[in-house]
Amino acid sequence: MQDPARSEYAALTAKVDAFADAVSSRCASQMSCRSGCAGCCQVDLTVSAVEASTIVEHLGSLSATERQALCEEDVSPLDDSLPRCVFLSATEQCQIYPVRPLVCRSQGLPLRYPSDFLPEDVVRVRVGGGSVTVCPLNFVEEAPSQQDVLDAERVDQILAIVNLRHCQAHELDPTHRVSLRALRDSVRR
């Protein structure tokens, strides 16, 4: 059975990727994000069911050798007090980059949330009726322009709707979050 929500999720990720590419192109001198920069990957992440199903499908498409290599590379963080994404390699590369979650796709970008949503210490600028946060390594010289700010609340709302449709189609709890660690560990079995 084809899941229309998975197609909607793919379209959403494509739009976020296109926006990120456009911002990176326009603001190359202001963006420090690059392959090997993993400051935002110091997290033990959970994802929605629709994101998890996409990652599971990707993991299932890997060869036995690729899955074994993925599971054998259990990199401990340099600082044990910091969590670390289980899909981050020893060379600071995302091992599931083509299917990385939406939160990962938007990291580094200027993100707008409703006013008073963000803690005051992370607000960089206020534009378009909201508070904007951005990686402290990006837009150091000047604040991002409004056209370079992603409406994170809207992306989150669309993801919630797509996830709800996916969960209804598969009789899942739409509020349940899936740990990336659990997804990686499922490959080990």
Explain the overall architecture.
The protein has 6 helices and 6 strands; from the N terminus they run αβαααββββαβα. The chain has a 4-stranded mixed β-sheet with strand order 3-4-2-5. A two-stranded antiparallel sheet has the order 1-6. Helix 1 packs antiparallel against helix 5, helix 2 runs parallel beside helix 6 and helix 3 crosses helix 6. Strand 3 and strand 4 form a beta hairpin. The model has no long low-confidence stretch (mean pLDDT 90). The protein has 189 residues and is an alpha+beta fold. The two termini are 25 Å apart.
Measured distance between first and last alpha carbons: 25 Å
Number of DSSP-assigned strands: 6
Q: What is the succession of H and E elements?
A: HEHHHEEEEHEH
Total helices: the number is: 6
Oligomer: single chain
Strand order of the largest sheet: 3-4-2-5
Helix content: 40-55%
Structural class: alpha+beta
Strand content: 5-15%
Q: Could you list the spans in which at least 5 consecutive residues all have pLDDT below 50? A: none
How does the overall form come out from the CA principal axes? Answer: globular
* Gyration radius, rounded: 17 Å
Largest sheet: 4 strands, mixed
